[in-house]
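User: Hey, my collaborator sent me this sequence without any context and asked if I could get a structure. I don't really work with proteins. Can you help?
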Amino acid sequence: MRICLITPRPDHPVLAATTALLTPRHQVESIDPESEGDGVQEGTAVPGPLADVYLLKARTPRALALARSFEERGAPVLNSAAATALCQDRTEMAGLARRAGLPFAATRTVASLAGLADERDLPYPLVVKSRHSRRHDLVTRVDNAAQLRGLRSTWAQEPVVVQEFTANRGWDHKLWVIDGRVFAALRRSELAEEGRGPTLPLELGDLPRGWQDLVRTVGAVFALEVYGVDVIDAGDGTPLIVDINAFPGIRGQMGAPEALAALALRAARRP
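Assistant: No problem. I've predicted the 3D structure and written it out in structure-token form, which is a compact way to encode the shape of the chain:
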């Protein structure tokens, strides 16, 4: 089989480990969507025979355009360009999750942070995030109007989503899924006063009842096969989903490269 990684970083730990598992019997190559010519935006780049399957470990507009071009020519892409793009828009993400009955944080969209700062009687504390997820985007807790106004100098025109802050212990449950197999860890929330620390191991048996089924349902709703779900405990094991990511890093999870390699080969063999 010929497996192609769409990524600027084929040396990413989970991709490198997956490649090592596959290469004794299969051909693994990579393509950096940012290094392709201008035609990638129109889906005209990278001519030639298709790979048997593409793993989309990039989320930029160029990466999505490239993935769509392969899909239009009949190649399987994991995850699809459409599913990946959906997870980049926090407004669309929240809307789909809540329509599906998932316990996703109530979310409203504001055209700009400046417009939000002009509103009165906001129910502080708030969680304010860039509407469009990307590297170095805005994700912060805002406790008062002065703090919100202070963000205007950098983020005034940024489209944002707003969520009421839900009291919790300050830990995100990082739940990752590859083809239905769940992996788990704990990480300090980026909203916590202590700041983010190391990722801590978490046994699946220590998750509250029903959480594994919940994150598998997320995959079905969002048409994802490799994804991450950030969940906080809103009290007594009540889950609240705060983020969904297509093809996250899944670092340090024993068995993750094996699961990814098996998924890639199964997708490549589909009729």
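In plain terms: The two ends are 14 Å apart (CA to CA). You can pass these tokens on to your collaborator as they are.
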